[in-house]
Amino acid sequence: MAGAIALVVALIGGAGVLVASRGSGDDAAAPAPTGSFTDGLSSAEPTPTPSDEPTDTTEPTEPPSEPLPSPTPPEKRRTVKDVDKGLEVYDDVYVDPAKGWRKLHTTKYSMTLAAQGRGVAYVVVSPVGYPAAAAAPAMVGMVKTADKLVGVQSGKVKTLKPVNSNIGSQAQVSFTGRFKQSGATFSVAGRCTTMTGVESIHNVTVAVCVEARKDDTAAAYRDASRMLASVARSI
Q: Which pTM was predicted?
């Protein structure tokens, strides 16, 4: 943008100089004789010469001023103190297991928890800040692959109001599917909630996914909401 403005200024300034030079040249020309002559009938008025004719003048052109740069908005600062309670998953993100839930497995970026007779939950941390609504379907795909679910159907992604000011965006998507083990087939239902921290506070995307038997989701969903709240407080 600065280069384009400089070029426009140069062109306009050059044209102004060219026109002014032409005007100065005409005014400097030697004047033609202006004496009167007699044709025997009347006295003739002097014949106008080019130097007597009005000369167009060009108003000086003011070069456009360069736009002032927009001020950089101040980065957001933490206004809600983070509470690190329970088990650390990754990068200062914690989950406080609900009563009856225990840790089953961990990787560098995730933790799996389970409660007998209730269900299973996954907490996954990505060190990249993605829009929460875009990350939610990918988390369902992760659960589908991890549990080898078949016939998976996902609902629409719901954009949620962030639970605190340290979270920039939050979303949720529900799903159903079937799980086969030892010759038996179980119908399951679940949901994944994604939260993306404010970039200048905690630049991570965190997902909490829970699944349970389709006919008995109440206890698992209740406990998952409590664990989700503990994760949100640690972001």
A: 0.67
